[in-house]
Amino acid sequence: MAGPDGGAVARPASPPGPLAPGVCALCPLAGRGRLGAGRRVADSPQAPGAACPPAAGATRLDQRAGAPAGYGREKKAGAQAVGRSRGGNTTKLHLTTDGAGNVLGWQLTPGPAGDCPEAAGLLAPWPAPAQQVVADAAYDSDALRAQIAAAGAVAVIKPNPRRKHMPHFDPLAYAQRHHIEQTINKLKHFRRVATRYDKLDSSYNAFVALRVSTSYLN
Predict the structure, then answer these.
(1) pTM for this model (two decimals)
(2) Are strands 103-110 and 132-135 parallel, antiparallel or unpaired?
(3) Is there a single domain that holds both residue 56 and residue 91?
(4) In this prediction, what percent of the chain has a pLDDT beyond 90?
């Protein structure tokens, strides 16, 4: 129809008519983005305006919101053996080897962590007592020397220069420490060990175990 000034005016909308048989109205969304209890089902005759029935064979679990992506994965918690040092975020790998350079055990710690506190745990699970335990000055402590002596071995540890009383030191026996240095160098040939790319310490530890296993095969 035309208005008083000659412009076009739309007529009032008429109320919607009944839906055709077999056509279902869309169901409103419930709170928090979840679908309501009903669903749109084609070719199912019902009364106009009625709620859509659930799909055939659907359960209450089918009508709930799905789990978010990544649900069930291992979560990152704690420091994950990463600490900030002079070179940035780093991880330190502590090793024990036998006289031939075969790895007997290892432990991951954050980069700034001290070396000596980890030695006690690494020496405890050895299958057989050693005759000598060779370590550098970072492992020089009276407690560690006492633990080695109690196990029936001789501590060949380079004394810390700040010690007041210098213990006996055998430089010829200390030269055997090159075996563990060579072992560390071989491990670093494996890129995933030399540079850590893993967020979780369990993932990085698995790559260390893989490299140690392959070193025994070679």
Answers:
(1) 0.57
(2) unpaired
(3) no
(4) 19
